[in-house]
What does this fold into?
Amino acid sequence: MKEAYVLKDEMEKDERVINLKKAEKAMENCEDVMRLSYAFSCAQDEYNDILKHFEIDSAEAKKYQKKLFEVKRKLDEHPLVKNYLQHYQKVRLMYEDIQESVFRPFTKGGCIEKR
It folds into this structure.
């Protein structure tokens, strides 16, 4: 069990994780990103509400789907969000590598008693 805590601590010291946390903090402190994020959330709510009354392929639903897509694109294209997503990708790949090398033997029946 101690090894798991050591691994966690080492991961927290990793440059990729540190950079991700910095990027996240910058993004969270940016009013422009907060505004875009709120607009995206509202567009999601509108789209979900319209789907309660119209079919997904209706003109009404398509109109709100297009709005949702445009708002999401604006959010994703913001430089701080792009930076965050780039750092997130690096950390995600690191976690996948750890999952594969450390934990996979436990999930593929390596430690499970077969009956």
